[in-house]
Amino acid sequence: MEETLKLKKATYHLWTFTVSKLVSTFGAQVYAFAISFYILQLTGSASSFALNLICSILPRTIVAPFAGYAADKYSRKMIVIVAQIATTIAIGGLLVVSLTMGLSLFAIYSTTVILSLTSLFSGVTFSSSITGLVDEGRIQKAMSLNQMSISFAAIGSPAVGGLLYGAVSMPVFLIMYMVASVIAVLLESTMDFKLFAKRKEVVEGEPKEPMLESMKAGLRYLMKQPILKTMVVISLFINFLFGAYQVGYSFILIEKLKINAQHFGFTEGAFAIGMLLLSIYFSTRKELKFPFLVSKWGIVVLGVLMGTVALPLLITMSSTMLVVFYIVLMFFFGATMMVTNTPIQVMMQKMIEDDYKGRVFSIIETCAMALMPLGMVLFGFLYDIFPAEGILIVSSMLLILVTLFLARPSVVRAAHPELGQKRVAYLKTES
Q: Where in the cell is it found (predicted)?
């Protein structure tokens, strides 16, 4: 009876978690859309816009280890709720400023820093809590539904933002975000973060581990897990080399091929639709048997697709053919991204002990956030010097070679010993 109640509660968590994520992500993305346009209209400066991005990335990179420590040492439910309340207060503060003194860049940048930190604490803590919120058999479903809500927001928020911007004032955008944040707080407050959790109980009178030692312990734990370490190293290479795609895609389409803004928007939408459809697929199917192997070939396909972005620079295409080519390419890009990410995320959720999840996920977050800007700056510099097609093709080949080396057959068999057993059984049958 108790087990049935727990499973019912887990089902409730699945949908509450999804709706909460959808509402808060949608609100955040509509706000981000509006504030980006506002900064550009206010200043007409790309550097002012870039500074807002830095205010979003830099605090996350610096504070991520502390967020991981907090997620492992304190109540995860409390951290998520406090982070969401802080988001509401920050937006409320910006609303008051806009109504009394008018929006200034300082107020916007300050709010961006606070929102960056609250989303970091909420994101790392939620990632650490999946196995506590749902039963083991539905971890893949939870991860897929989470990605589905992000994909819905990615598709809908630019459309909603575009329709409302100019039609309503900035305070209306801020009020919408506040309402979304309050709904998320109410939903999160009904969730039981300890339902399936396997965290060690704190013993009264036991000396507390110093924060720095605790962070080091998280790093040591990661280094002792060879498969987990390989996953992290591969993800770091992906984040770095994907700078070639992130910078190159817009540069090639807008600057080199002169695709108009509407058609460029179609290609971006195709990417989100690809992610959405595969999210729905993974939420309805059984968990994959060999997630590491699936992710390995997913990354290889991503490498091929990344190189294919440069194809229209090598082969002449009509304007219609060009748009169709990139819509199809970006659809497969989004779909392959899900095939790569979902299985590995599920595997990590199962591999990492509950007491270390926060610190391990925060280490990954720190490295990824640090390498992304570095990759974008480096590739931005390279695109000014070398041909775009050369940079993309070399980067895609590097990504494929690194993946094939780091996830070589011996490593795959270590991650999935049953594959090795199948091979031995096959050889015995053949002989």
A: Cell membrane
Burial of residue 179 (number of CB atoms within 10 Å: 0-12, 13-18, 19+) = middle
Torsion of CA 3, 9, 15, 16, to 10 degrees: -150
Q: For residues 76 and 368, what is the distance between their CA atoms, to the nearest angstrom?
A: 23
Q: Which helix (H) or strand (E) holds 387?
A: none
Domain parsing of the chain, residue ranges: 2-196, 215-430
Instruction: Report the alpha-carbon distance of residue 258 to residue 252 in Å, rounded.
Output: 8
What CATH architecture does domain 215-430 belong to?
A: Up-down Bundle (1.20)
Vertex 18: Cα angle to 15 and 19 (nearest 5) = 85
Domain 2-196 fold is: Growth Hormone; Chain: A; (1.20.1250)
Q: Which pLDDT tens digit goes with each residue over 288-347?
A: 888 889 999 999 999 999 999 989 888 888 888 998 999 999 999 999 988 888 888 888
Q: Is the pLDDT of residue 426 over 50?
A: no
* 2-196 against 215-430: fold identical: yes
Instruction: Decide: residue 1, CB within 10 A, 0-12 exposed, 13-18 middle, 19+ buried.
Output: exposed
Residue 127: φ, ψ to 5°: -60, -35
| Residue 386: how many other CB atoms lie within 10 Å | 11
Q: Give residue-wise pLDDT tens across range 121-177.
A: 888 888 888 888 888 788 888 888 877 777 777 777 766 776 776 677 788 888 888
Give the C-alpha distances (Å, rounded to integers) separating 129 from 26, 72, 126, 309, 338: 22, 10, 5, 37, 21
Structure token digits, residue 258: 């002169």
pTM (2 d.p.): 0.77
Q: Residues 6 or more apart from 421 whose CB is under 8 A from it?
A: none
Range among 5-14, 107-116, 189-198, 295-304 rated most confident: 295-304
Cβ–Cβ < 8 Å for 330, 273: no
